[in-house]
Amino acid sequence: MSPPRWFPSHHRPPPSTAAPGPPPPPGPNGFWITDPDFRDRLHSATLTLLDIVQDCLNDDVPLTEILDGARDHAEHMLGVPSTYGVLVEAEAAAQIVQAAGLDAGSPFGLAVAQGLAGIAQLPLEQQQHLVRAAARRYAITAPSRSATGPPASPPRPAPGRTR
């Protein structure tokens, strides 16, 4: 920003000495969907966002407004780079729609938008219930990292009689 015209051009204000903020969270190692550590962070961020949505609903903030603002705070509140905040928003929205028993289709599809619009019209207590149900279901059904590891060996037969 240039100084105002009335400010003498030979005098410049001292440089800003603002303290730098924390470093941004690291991105994925390669393509995000093939990085298991980053997928775990996205999963954790989605669970965190569902918790935040539930808390904000207690403060009478509209559901869609809470979800819409999440990507702006992805680095600081969710621990993922801001460019991936939209993935967290979309997944959380889809989970809430599915908790309502509606077909969400793609997290970026029209079905999620229509589902959220209908859910936003419900009483606050029902919205909170749906968000809690979505968080529980997402925590239970999310793939674990051990599922991507080598298959377990079949159990050995117990010693004893054979047929």
What does this protein look like?
The protein has 163 residues and is mostly helical. It has six helices and no strands. It has helices spanning 36-58, 63-69, 74-78, 85-99, 110-120, 124-141. Helix 1 packs antiparallel against helix 6 and helix 4 crosses helix 5 (110-120). It is globular, with a radius of gyration of 23 Å. It starts with 35 loop residues before the first helix and ends in a 22-residue tail after the last helix. Mean pLDDT is 79; it is low at 4-8 and 146-157.
Question: Which characteristics define this entry?
Answer:
163 residues, globular
TL;DR of this structure?
The chain has about 160 residues and is mainly alpha-helical. The chain has helices spanning about 35-60, 65-70, 75-80, 85-100, 110-120, 125-140. The protein is globular, with a radius of gyration of 23 Å.
Low-confidence stretches: 4-8, 146-157
Q: Tally of extended strands? A: 0
Strand and helix order? HHHHHH
Biggest sheet character: none
